Amino acid sequence: MTETSKPQAKVGRMGFESNEYLSWYLPRVRGESAKPAINLHASGMPALSADELAPTAGEPWSMAGRFEAALGEWLGIPAEEVVFTSGATGGTLLALLCLARPGSAVLIESSMYEPMRRQAERLNHVRRLPRSIDDAWRVDPASADLGGEVAMVLITEPQNPSGIASPREAVLELAARCADAGAVLLINEVYRGFTDAPSYHGTAESTVVVSSLSKLCGAYAARLGWLSARPEICVQLRQGLWNASVTPGPTAAAGVTVMQRIDELAARARETSRAGVGVVDDWVGATPGLEWHRPDVGFGCVRLPQGIGDLALAERLHDEHGVLVVPGTLWEAPGTLRISWLQAGEQLRSGLERIGTVLAGR
Predict the structure, then answer these.
(1) CATH, domain range 60-261
(2) Which of 16, 42, 239, 348 could form a disulfide with 343, with the two C-beta atoms 3.0–4.6 Å apart?
(3) Is 0.90 surpassed by the pTM of this model?
(4) 258 to each of 88, 265, 329, how far by Cα in Å?
């Protein structure tokens, strides 16, 4: 378990169509067995049923506007400052296409969800903004290299895989620096709804927020994402949707249905997020060699004892002990495991015990 195995790429180059994390993760999460693995991997709420996503009746072409209006009311912002997108990943791609100049550089945090990094690498020159466990995963605005042709900075608050939110003043300082440099600051707030923290929408002229209801509500199938920004930027984004012919109107009808329960669903997500953090915190403290920074949402990144390969450990936990966790190597955070309790339920303690047993036996 001291060596880290590498997933086998299916193609000879690593481009937009390739993804080490999903190539490792999807076969395991979709695996069929008599006894499914304990779910300590999912960073979102359990999926809503088809009945709960039943589309609202009405004229189909009006649904995107109705969904944006409902989102705006919930977020406390004008509907003209909200653009419906195909999930947060689709929103990120739209922002890159519309707001980052061709040939420009994009500064993205590390660690970062790989599909978003692949999007940026395919379209722009990528630089990195480090966030690590040694710095409590917090963003450092002073370390952001905004020189040259940087057109966009992309961060996640709270951050994934750590579940940590940076101090608000640090993010606001970064936003001010981006505005001075003429760069868009794109903040992924997919996990903000699990907390009571205010959005960064409107905090600087060039700040754009991307989010979705997938993780918060379990509305994965409907792809209910959005971008929010000042109206002039939203006009650009809407034009980009039209030009690409990817307006996600049909699923907006399901979004209108979800918005009728949004307060209930958001409250359930916040309660689920809070419920397990003490259990995991106690387990980390009682397990020799482990450490973490207590997260703000329902998952966190645990540092393993030195010499233990996280990828090999995650594979052994899944294959031999029926526990699925996310290895940090595939999230640019080697030597860690991301552990989530958002879908673990009563199996949380059992899953943690199995991890502890494997670590104790090495």
Answers:
(1) 3.40.640.10
(2) 42
(3) yes
(4) 16, 9, 35
